[in-house]
Amino acid sequence: MAWLECSVEVEAEAVESVSELMASYGYNNGVAVDQPVIHGADGPDYRYDTERPVTVRTWIPVDHKSEDARAKLEQALWHLSLLRKVGSLKVTQLEEQLWAEAWKKHYTVQRIGKRSVIVPSWLEYTPQPNDIILKLDPGMAFGTGLHPTTRMCTQLLEEYMPPETRVMDLGCGSGILAIVAAHLGAKEILAIDTDPIAVEATIANAAINGVAGSMKIFEGSLGKGNSLGHWLSWDAPDVPSGTAVNPESLQCDVIAANLIAKVLVFLADDMYAALKPGGLLISSGIIADREDEVALAFTAAGLERLDRRSEGDWVALYHRRPLA
Fold first, then answer.
1. Nearest Cα to 166, choosing from 202, 201, 211, 214?
2. What is the CA radius of gyration of the chain?
3. What is the pLDDT of residue 229?
4. Which pLDDT score, from 0 to 100, does residue 254 have?
5. What value, to the nearest 5°, has the Cα angle with vertex 314 and ends 258 and 286?
6. Per-domain residue ranges of the chain
7. In the 8-state DSSP scheme, what is residue 226?
């Protein structure tokens, strides 16, 4: 598979807004930020150079929709350049192997929770007491743990997930949340995604992390979610594919759903039905402007809100199916 590497130079004050914009077009919200640094004279110390532009990158898979996505991204950046110093979009086509190597330059050890630490294979890390180490290399599914929604879901899992439970990672991406759940003591994990590339990545990452034995991983969605096609859903639903899982058959203790707002709203009733009484729902991928819409759908489905987290413009919610 080939990829379009899209990059733009921006002033420091525009990094956050440009990153959020590019994440909305990049595959699985993958964005890399190259901030120029000034190295110290006597060692590894450095400081950020605020006088030089910052480079923001994302990647788009080459298919029949990629040119439309590139054009829309370029137009959105142009509008943003009327308010901030934003350079012209540069686009380079990369084959899969070159893309993976390019991503490595922007990927470091990342602590995404109090215990969970993502360590790429080419870097060394000395674990701290009680650390959960996730061995995760970049691949086509992205899902590196760098996005705020992944971090918030991980933190909520660490804080609230009981051991010896049945967990579903709905929209598993590269399988980060499923792997965290396995290390936290889940006895059975269902990892499911409408994207076959994500399914392949989750299978590989589960094996690398030694937790494949506790997982069932396959292409599909929950209930009527299978009719949506790929969860990024571009402009229109794709042809349904994969397995449509019957919600009532699951009786999950925990569902982790790091999706997007409209999919969470669409699946609210199915997620309620898939939880056993007292079961927990951790959801994110919610832009702040859509939080009320998601919260209302969850309440209408019968879910009880217990907690809320936010980071930047993103929100994560924690709900429970009532016991009664």
1. 214
2. 20
3. 57
4. 97
5. 45
6. 2-104, 140-320
7. G
Contact 257, 281 (CB under 8 A): yes
The pLDDT of residue 201: 84
Give, for 190, the enclosing helix (H) or strand (E).
strand 188-193
53 DSSP assignment: P
Can you spell out the DSSP letters for 76-132?
Answer: HHHHHHTTS-B---EEEEEEHHHHHHHHHTT---EE-SSSEEEE-TTS---PPTT-E
Q: Domain 2-104, CATH 2.60.120.10 — does that match? A: no
Distance of CA 24 to the CA centre of its chain: 12
User: What is the spatial distance between Cα 303 and Cα 269, in angstroms, rounded to a whole number?
Assistant: 9
Q: Distance between CA atoms of 163 and 254, rounded to whole angstroms?
A: 10
Residue range 140-320 forms a domain whose CATH class is alpha beta
What distance in Å separates the CA atoms of residue 251 and residue 255, rounded to the nearest whole number? 10
What is d(CA 221, CA 43) in angstroms, rounded to the nearest whole number? 51
Residue 34 confidence (pLDDT): 79
Closest-CA residue to 277 (of 256, 314, 303): 303
Task: Determine the pLDDT at residue 238.
Answer: 40
Give percent of the chain with pLDDT exceeding 70.
83
Helix orientation angle between 15-23 and 66-81, rounded to the nearest 10 degrees = 160
Which positions of the chain have pLDDT values less than 70?
28, 37-49, 96-106, 137-146, 226-242
Three-state DSSP state, 9: strand
Say how far apart CA 293 and CA 237 lie, in whole Å: 21
Tally of CB atoms within 10 A around 162 = 12
Question: Which backbone phi and psi does 235 adopt, to 5 degrees?
Answer: -105, -25
- CA 249, CA 246: separation in Å to the nearest integer? 6
